[in-house]
## 1
Amino acid sequence: MDTDKRKGTNTVFKTVMTIIATSIITFVITTTLLYSQGGKKDTETVIGDAAKSGKLSAKLSIIRNKIDSEYVGNINEDDLIEGAVKGYVSGLNDVYTEYLTVAEMTEFTEDTTGEYVGIGVYMTKDTANNQILIYSTIKDSPAQKVGLMTGDIIVSVDDEECNGDNYDTITSKIKGKEGTKVKIGIIREQKEMTFEIERKKIEVQHITSEVLENDIGYIYISSFEGNVATQFEKAFNELKEKRIKSLIIDIRNNGGGIVTESLDIADMMTGKGENLLIELDKNGKEEIKKSKKDKQIDMPIVLLVNEYSASASEILAGILKENVENATLIGNTTYGKGVIQTLYTLSDNSGIKITTNEYFTPNHNKINKIGVEPDIKITDYTFTGDIDIEDDSQLKKAIETLKK
């Protein structure tokens, strides 16, 4: 998501990815927010164009008449409307464009602000196996404390079986009032396990840091949401006080977040006025985002990336690869999510998210469906989210590179 603006009484967010969108990979790509400004008319136009469609109106009228005259079950008018709008938008066959109900919009807001009541897990839908996977737990969260782990397959919530078909509703079932408990059934290495977990207010920390051997600083960024640039700057300054001489920034398994957060972090490593990001709209109009501050971090840097580094992560990767001379990218080619969505909040607090822009690296290289190539490619590696110098070949190579 870009520069902060507001659009009348209807908030507009530019997104790089939505949390509830699914893909062929088994790691969720998180949402990126941008705010736009203008008038209320734009939102009404989106709905008005659909209402004016003669073919749509005629077909819906025929279908509704048939339902009224022959359907034997109960009719819920709100459900019919929501289903019709969802189906209409899904007809674009764009996995990133969708209609969000009021409940989905509420969840969307919670996820992007970085604070909510729940157990503290990141989940994704494994489309190949129709399973719900835990791909990460939040540090010091109830989920982590009871022992839920990356790779666990969620098979039940409060004794109700679930799979990938329930993905859109499973998050709301796991969340709830603070102090209440939820029972999570999982499969781990073909063994079934059950955990009863108390829901608590979760304040997500997206940064972890440490000093490694040879005075190498290490910062892991799990997401670019919720004030992460401030967290990153604080972590770096603390490492700097410990006299680090070089820095590893790890964005593996980071599915994205707020683009302005990514740009603010990149701004710390680039000179003032340098190109950071190029956006292209439907009409071919380009907008170039530039760094606003003088360089704050001037030391050898390694950026660790993998195939699950997406969206805002790829923006940072492109900037460091092309605009930071003392930066080296190590790992796998990134995911390749290089389009931006705009989310309109409608008058009833539902929303519609539409792909509106494509973005490119500072040198105008394409990211969408291509990704960012690392300078040193290492495909055989183990990454659990923890620092593991012995078994994590990508991290080991990063340390070796900075030792030189």
Note: The mean pLDDT is 85.
## 2
Amino acid sequence: MKPANALRIAGLAAALAFSTHAPAQTLADLEPPEALIKAAKAEGRLMLYTSMNDNNSRTLLNAFEKRYGIKGETFRAPTAPLVQRFAVEHDGNGVAADIFSVASPLPFKNNPEWFAPLDKSFAPNLANWPKEGVHERRYTWTNEILALAYNTEQVKAEEVPKTWADIINPKWKGRIVLSDPRAADNYMGWLDAIETAFGMDFVRKLGAQDFKLTPSGASGVQMVAAGAATLNLPTIATFATPLIEKKAPIAVIYPGEPQLASARDIAIVAKAPHPQAARLFLNWTLSLEATKLYCGVNAVAVVGDPDGKAGCVPLRGAKEVNFEVSEERVRTLTRELGLNK
């Protein structure tokens, strides 16, 4: 990561993902059988459906193409609409995606038939991934702290909210763009954790801040960088990275008390049009090469590099958001926030 990013993305190395982790084996660059590589190259294409930002997806796909000659495409959307689109495609037998990745385990848990079982026979790099991050039909890739982005031309450094409690200060009224909690499980998990920490009256006060809504942190940081809003929350730091690289007036911090993290999973689509390319890509994302690449352009923690030996942010102690907020509680939280009017 460039020094400018390290300076402007503040506080990431404080407490990140989860309180404990089992020691991982050293990541490697293990190749699957040559027959699979040949078959994947014959397919020649790969489609990634994801909620991660386009810059991250393109960085990975470009490197994958350079290594194997397989052209990658990506479709990005916030988690909820992405899942809806994929469900329609799956039920209509018109699946376009080969790989599916979102920052929520629920689509994988609730719809296991959508995804193919993982197997070390085609993904030998699974053997070096921490066991707690490997599941039957997906693996947990990254853990990211939920962040707050702010416009550096509109906010002095000493004024930036340091904790989540600071966001209801009257000075921010009309200046916040809120990532819609209904659009992604991790954003709803954030709202759930905020209410647990500060109470329902805090949620009502946040609702009185006259915020704008955005469907994702990706569009929220764009609004902040353009000066259309002063703060965006919650968001993911990697959404802001390309803007920071372009010297846009935006920076990211990680409010504490509580500090909250969400995990991102990856899976192979069961009806993938290019199944061999999907298998090859998944194995490559588990490699040391891909991990170094991803962490070289993002301040992020990767499950396979818990100690940061490959250049990732070391995993420390932060609270994982609840991805399974009950429907009744969702209705209550959104009502008190003023979203159900």
Note: Residues 54-68 form the longest helix (15 residues).
